[in-house]
Here is the input.
Amino acid sequence: MTVTILRQRLFLCMGLLGVLFLSACGGGGGGGGASSGNLNVLLADSPACGYDHVYVTVDHVEISSDGNNWTSIPVSASVAQPIDLLNLTNGAMLSLGIAPLPAGTYQQVRLVLKANGNAQPWANALVLTGSTLQIPLATPSSQQSGYKIVGPFVVQAGTMADLVLDFNACKSIVVAGGSGKYLLKPTVTATAEVVSGSISGIATPNASVYAEQQSGSGPVIVTGTVADATSGAFTLSTIEQSSTGGTVDVVMVPSAPASGNAGYAVDIVQNVPVTAGMTTSVGTLAAMASSINSASGTVTVSGSPGAANLVADQRVSSTTRVYEVSSIATTTGSYSIPLAASGVWLGTYSTTLPIVFTQDTAITDAGVYSLVATDAAAVASVPQTVNVSAGSVANINFAF
Here is the structure.
């Protein structure tokens, strides 16, 4: 999104899903003090799958300096509730309120949602893609999810400190077994803007764009967004700059047409630098044609159709890196995930734009993906390898 990363500014009071933390490890968070500053909490969302809307209603935010004593901060009366998290993408900012805090270094924040009650209108709900029906979203009162802030988060006297919470709706919503009830199990990254930078560029309209890094357990999506529907502009904001400088790989996954139709391959720009307080441009990402095929199958839980999230990873053998390129959710047990039949187009960051891309044509990479399903209990399946280079593949089934 050059879009401006739909990330709405939330000043100290924002609610995400069940609950979030912001505990302090340094001078003060909840209790008195002669010197104080202001905290500005921002909320963003990564691309979601299978949902047109995800609504939450924030009750209050709690701040603590030691994890034991908490200061409650109310949401501003001017904030419209419920909040549709899926509007918070590509740069928009939502202000939930501003509050003073004692100067100090903080490490956690806790956000609390209002309860749904027994009838509509629901405080917390979702709408499945293609539907208009609001389905209540359960946020168990016993659920408390702590989020460690990436990098030091310091509130200085007489200043405003910004904290961004990046919420991934697709990976945070699950179906509770075969009950058909939806639960919110937060996947959130909290980052202080003072230690973060941004990346901007132009992608194909409506493309999903991710900043990814490699880990021992596989690719990690640092943040993501959806490119503007008209211009293709995008911004990936609030990416931490590590003490050693830090780079990420930018992954553009074009919006997929119907299976079997012409579409576009995945673009990857490797080693994009992240500099605190600055925006790095990757220019216009090339739209490279590719057939789109699909991998499909079923998910069963205890012998019956079950809900799951499915993720497709693609390897680039020449650099030994693996990238998450697609994810979907199934609530019925049946799924079909569109995938490019070709290998990715790979470029390396350069200040000279446009970036030059070369296609990965390795036989082990082109159209070859690793699929993993994760059930409502957060249990991951054994990965299955699929090859859609020659056409769509069916009966890729998962059982829990």
Notes: The radius of gyration is 21 Å.
